Amino acid sequence: MPTELEELVGFIAHPTLQIRAVALENLVPYSLSQPSIFKSQELVPVKHLKFLVKDHPKNAEHALTILINLTSDQKILEYVASDEKFLDLLIGYVTDPAEPNANLIAMLLANMAKWDGIKSFATKKLPAPEKLQSNDLVLNQLLDLFVKGADGTYNKDANFDYLAYVFADLSKHAEVRQFFTKAQEYDGVVPLNKIKVFTEHKSEIRRKGVASTIKNAAFDLPSHPAFIDEDQINILPYILLPIIGNEEYEVEETMDMLPDLQLLSPDKQRDSDPHIIQTHIETLTLLTTTREGRELMRKIKVYPIIRETHLRVEDEGVREACERIVQVLMGDEAEPGTEEAVKEDDDDDKVVEV
């Protein structure tokens, strides 16, 4: 005999709008406390929730919230993320400038991006809304939405911050990393150049996701020359500025730093999130894989910035990251032709959580 909650779950498929509304609203907290009630009958309730994304906006809001909570379960995550028609629907909705639940859809996509099989969908082609002025590649549409939609400028009801987590998880895959470092034909812009400007954005979610995306892209060793080239990706100012604070340096050190790091205001603060600082330092460490990268960082006085960060940030992860890069920058150079290989850190799987 079904329990009261199980009976309530059954009402989300009721033909009457008002009854569905009451059931969905009351079930939202149980999607966290008792998610098993949605796993009955081979996930039939989850199937109904996917359909309800097309329901009245308020019902869709509750359905999306429940799905966001339920996709922390691996079985449900795979069931939802492997549904290509559902993904098509979500992309169509999230890119609609009038969609009231766009932020929730972005959050659901961020969870779905944790399923490895979704990487192929990122390179799928779908028609883009005219207002977005993007091309038909899904990943380009999400990037343009992330950039143009910041602070409610594309959709008054959304800021699309959680798309940063989508990029972070997708960029763990080699083919997506390469996408982020290559200019796109439709606009001639390298995707990393679109998002690097958000490393100092007011949104911690945006900063964190972008930092992780940059770090993951830096595992692509052939792209390192472009990363440090001032006329290409030129990533160093964007990952050093969040690390540096308002401390004073010797004149000789300051003069050799990148121009963007000189003459900072007295109230300049480093990023408030130690995890983001650690991520940026780990990116710098990846970029020391080549001799060219190491020599440039010594030349522009990265060491003093790391030294001061180590002194001022009381976080074990940050200090360990500082110590690792200092060992590289202060160490003796190996003979030519003996560059170390880049190895991906297994901890990257834990970079992003929603």
From TrEMBL:
Renumbered residue ranges of the record's region Disordered: 333-354
Name this protein carries in UniProt: Protein HGH1
Family named by the database record: Belongs to the HGH1 family.
InterPro entries on file: ARM-type_fold, Hgh1, Protein_HGH1_C, Protein_HGH1_N
Domain Protein HGH1 C-terminal stretches: 283-336
Domain Protein HGH1 N-terminal: start-end pairs: 93-278
Lineage: Eukaryota, Fungi, Dikarya, Ascomycota, Pezizomycotina
Domain of life: Eukaryota
